[in-house]
Design goal:
Length: 164
Amino acid sequence: MSDTNISRRALLGAGMLGGAALLLFRPAGGEAAAQHFDVTKTADQWRRALGAERYAVLREAATERPGSSALLREHRNGVFACAGCGLPLFASSTKFESGTGWPSFFRPLPNSVVTKSDRTFGMVRNEVLCRRCGGHLGHVFDDGPKPTGLRYCMNGLALVFRPA
């Protein structure tokens, strides 16, 4: 084996690792920022409207502490809406106890959410956003109950509850 071959292999390997790292560890929100949403505000307007904790979740894709949401114990009939723009997102009849520490649902309301690939933290997940304002709601996983088999694992700070 010559030194030239080792150098080429090393260079190729380093390039592939660097490319993979860029894909896996990209900053959150890159794709969402390029999408158009019906409700748009400046960062300052969102901060004033939402407050620090909700802003971090909805606009910066933060995750609240598991078990901290009062909505975990919300069992009345009604609708869970986006805390950013008020769009109805989930019917209470689709909420279930997942044991994860976040409000979970097996189906969103029609035309309420969009998803995008989220490759942060070295894993691939499906991020769930409000269709109207682009607010980060949480993620959807394929380990939910029937009839859909989906678990929409949402941040309680991203939601408001409206009783029926």
